[in-house]
Every structure is written in C-alpha cells, then in structure tokens.
Amino acid sequence: MTLPGKLKQVSNTIFIRDFIRPKIYLDLLTDEFGSDWFEWEPETIHHEIMRVFNQRPTESVFEKIMALQTYMTTDLYWDDIMTFEDIILAFGDRYVDPDMLQGCTPEELAYGVAVAEEVGKEHSGDLVRDIIIYIRGCHQMAGVVVYHPSLKFAQPIYPEPLASLVTQVEEAVANGITPNDPLDLDDAFQVQLAKTLDVSVYVDERLIKGMI
C-alpha cells in the first residue's frame, strides 16, 4: 500500500478517477484532516476536498467517500442489508440508490468485501444472517456455486452432487486448470470453473487498477 506521505504526489487527479481503492481515500483524507472528517457533514467534506485538493469529486468518488465514512463510523455494514449493499456498490464505483435493493454480482460482492477488509476496521461480530442470505441469493441469481475467497464465510454447505462439484472446481483452480475453449455449456464443471475464474480475474484486475 502506498504510504500516506506519498499520496499527495498523485492527489491532483485522485478525486476525479474511478477504480481507486477505498483504503487510499482513507489514508489521504486522514493524513490531511485527521479523524475529524469522520464526523463531518457531506457538504463539509465536499468543500474541504475542493479547498485543499482543488478538485470537485465526481459523483461516484464522493459516494465512495461517504460510504467509507459510514463504514468507519457505524456498524451498519455488518448489521443492515441495505447499508451493506450501498457500501459494496459505492466501493465498486456503481450508482447507489439508497431507497431500494439493487442486487450485486458475485464479482462486485467479492471485490467490495475484499476492499472493505483492506480498510481494516476492527469489528467483533460477523455479518448478520440476512446479509449472508443476500450474498447467497446474488450468487444463486448468477448461477455461481463456488464463492471467491473473500466470500468463503457465506459459502453454503451443499448436498451431493453439488458438494463434489465445488470441491472439483476448487481443486482445478488451485492447480491452474482453465476451462475448455470453446466452453461446453452442458458441462457443469466447465461452466462453474469458468464462472469462478471470471470472478477471480475481475477482483484481481480491479485491485491492480485501484492502486496508485
């Protein structure tokens, strides 16, 4: 992770760029304002960013910063399904509608949870069961049965034959096996292997792209 003292060297565009990881905004804003900004109103945060960094944050960047503030100052990420989704979407640069559940892809969930953990806030409890059910529902809608490592806490314990399929796919991923080309859509193992690798590639690419 880039050291806070070096962040100012690249801060001339950081508030108008998507894909930046939340931890980088946390380091930059806390380096400049201390923890005071955790308690500021949105208007104050926006004003101070413009004053200090001479940039008007894009809507998606500002939503990410506000989601980061909520994550740091409340337990709602762990306790409230609507807030959990809003934070995941904002961390992934997606539009947030706070009045409705929009649904997340497995890729968005895996990346969002990974970068939330990277922020490093201490919390004694686990995500409430409603959020686990939500994560599982998003995977079911996408037809994904093997969860990304950042989401293993929500991985269901399947009956056979799904349990064996999960093990088979996990072993294939660990051994660097890739799906056949062209993909056989009638082969459950090949399909699930492709979907599992798609999620991993998405998360890896976003984490790299989000560095400065």
Would you kindly provide a written description of the structure presented here, covering whatever features stand out?
The chain is mainly alpha-helical. It has one domain (4-209). 57% of the residues lie in helices and 0% in strands. The protein is elongated and about 60 Å long. The N and C termini lie close together (9 Å). The model has no long low-confidence stretch (mean pLDDT 92).
The tally of domains stands at 1
The end-to-end span amounts to: 9 Å
The structure class reads mainly alpha
Total strands: 0
- SSE order in H/E notation? HHHHHHHHHH
What is the beta-strand fraction?
A: under 5%
Helicity level, as a percent range? 55-70%
The major β-sheet equals: none
* Total DSSP helices: 10
Give the SSE map.
Layout: H1 4-7, H2 22-33, H3 42-53, H4 59-73, H5 76-79, H6 81-91, H7 106-119, H8 129-142, H9 162-174, H10 188-209
Which structural traits does this protein have?
single chain, mainly alpha, 57% helix, elongated
Brief account:
The protein is mainly alpha-helical. The chain contains ten helices and no strands.
